[in-house]
Design goal:
Oligomer: single chain
Structural class: alpha/beta
Shape: elongated
Number of strands: 18
Bound molecules: zinc ion
Largest sheet: 8 strands, parallel, barrel
CATH topology of the domain at 16-137: Chitobiase, domain 2
Helix content: 25-40%
CATH superfamily of the domain at 16-137: Chitobiase/beta-hexosaminidase domain 2-like
Amino acid sequence: MNTPGPDLDLVPKPSAVRVKGGVLRLSGPPAAESGPFAAECGVFEEQIRGCFHGGVLSPQGTNAEGGARLRCVHDGALAEEAYRLNIEDGLVTVAASSGSGAYHGLQTLRQLILSGEEKRLRSGGDVAEIPRAEIEDAPRFPWRGFMLDCSRHFFSAAFIRKIIDALSLHHINRFHWHLTDDQGWRFPVPGYPLLAETGSRRKDLRSGRSEGGFYTVQEIRDIVRFASLRHVEIVPEADLPGHTLSVLASYPALGCTGGPYEVEDRFGIFEDVLCAGNDGIFDFAAAVFGALADLFPSRRVHIGGDEVLFNRWEACPKCRKRLAETGLSSPRELQSWITSRLAAMLAERGKIPIGWDEILEDSPRFPLPEEAVIMSWRGREGGLEAARRGRRVIMSPNTEGCYLDYKHSEDPGEPGQLGISSLKAIYGMNPAGGMDGKEADLILGGQGNLWTELVYAGRIAEYMIFPRISALAEALWNPGGPAGFEDFTRRLSAHRARLDALDLLYYRGT
Ligand SMILES: [Zn+2]
């Protein structure tokens, strides 16, 4: 591990690396020259400042030897997220056509600096050395995502920022923020103050204590800005019409029975959902979408749509009346009626809906809108069907390692639930596998999801996320397809030291 491989042990592995021999010596962040991509350089310098340990920095925090400079140049011939990184003696050049390309190039440089500084600390040298090299790189899929469930357990704004920063080190560019569920509502909606007072807290059935939390408008705006500076788009999710006990506990009139309801402390799928016969649910959805549009610049809004039970709708006079009015034959079809109305409301706000693959079970009367994006989670079948029907797809199959709440291995000592998502399985996840050209073109990419029923602390979340998300990042990034699991695990030993430097916990097996 003392000598990096010909690919410099980068994760994800870049498209092309040419090692030139010799090193660039660094005792602090290279000094950025004025030029394009100043915002990206500013974030990079902040990140790098934290890499250097123990008094090697000059008082100004610039390179004490006065040597190394960082130059960013605009190159319109490069694709949107592509970059070229050239490391010479005393000068690093990053070329890109966009801020996202420049940022990815700087994150690759950050990985090299983390490794160089780690080696210096181990060997007791004076300065960090990084190999002189030229790297050319570009992504394979535009959607490289990670989802964090902040309803089953609440995670602090500081933790969210830490994870987004670590994701961006791996060129992950989407943070899907699961903000609502039966167990808690996590963001403010004007006109619905009880979501914060009642819907954000649940009674722990074992201890009797109140559990929960709520993000303020200011915290959310800060996180959105933090992510945007790192070229990570935050896609918020408000799960409707199921998984809504936190809403019903706050506003019981929105349910079929009228309650009373409680914010759920147990985990599972519950029969109480929003009442399809109540027009108030669309007033509520309008307020929710208005709030999301105000807080999140992303064009996409995830509307959930998963795991809806229909027995309340079957028994409810208001829902039965709605069935008669709409001419639909079964309560199941009411879900596609709701989905099409929600999608139309989002379209009015210039937003595109994303839903879990259950929303594919539409009715001929209310077909799934063309623009809707399917997130395929119950295996890849939903994604294959969606692509056959011309819909765009994000692959996140729980059958192929993408569910990070599953255990790392069969070891009974490992945390996790429901199944096993091995590092090898997620590394092998090919979003467009089994598709022909036209269908494959509809695959936006893939995503790893961390549901947090059993994840009650950020430290446990880190252990579940890493390095599985590092493996997925490579599967989604590398243009020639992943380099092979053995090749990846060889580089992973160096990459683990980078995760150590960022104070992230991770699984040590393969
Ligand atoms: Zn009803």
